[in-house]
Specification:
The chain has about 130 residues and is α+β, with helices and mostly antiparallel strands. Helix content is about 45%, strand content about 20%. The protein has a four-stranded antiparallel beta sheet, sandwiched between helices. The protein is globular and about 45 Å long.
Length: about 130
């Protein structure tokens, strides 16, 4: 999908109240779901980096696709599907909302993509989850 006219964004968002909920099965499920959503909705996931209390997603999208809509789709669909797969998580998190309100994003260029990818890939190491 790379090429002229594409735009790249590094997205970041957190579980409700930054509860460290993105472990193991949920981490794997989130990564699978975000790629399924991208395929279905016409954008591309370049990189993901998940740590217990936040997720990073680097995407490539068409210039005319609305970024906020993409973020809402990712957060909405993943929240619903995570709670469907693990209904007890609602009780553990004491909420009906998997994700916290809000998000952060940074636009990238083709030149800055390698730096963004490396940063996202290094999240588990940066947060002391792997050596």
């Amino acid at each position: 999908m790379s090429g002229k006219g594409r735009v790249y964004y590094h997205l970041t968002f957190s579980p409700y109240k930054r509860i460290p909920a993105l472990f193991d099965e949920i981490d794997a499920l989130f990564n699978r779901l975000v790629r399924e959503i991208a395929q279905d909705k016409g954008f591309y996931v370049i990189e993901t980096g998940v740590v217990p209390n936040h997720a990073h997603v680097l995407i490539e999208k068409k210039p005319w696709d609305d970024l906020i809509t993409i973020i809402q789709l990712i957060k909405g669909i993943t929240a619903r599907r995570i709670f469907q797969a693990m209904p007890e998580l609602r009780f553990d998190m004491h909420t009906e909302h998997f994700w916290a309100e809000g998000y952060h994003y940074v636009r990238h260029t083709e030149e800055s993509l390698p730096t963004a990818r490396a940063y996202i890939r290094d999240q588990k190491r940066k947060h002391g989850l792997i050596d």
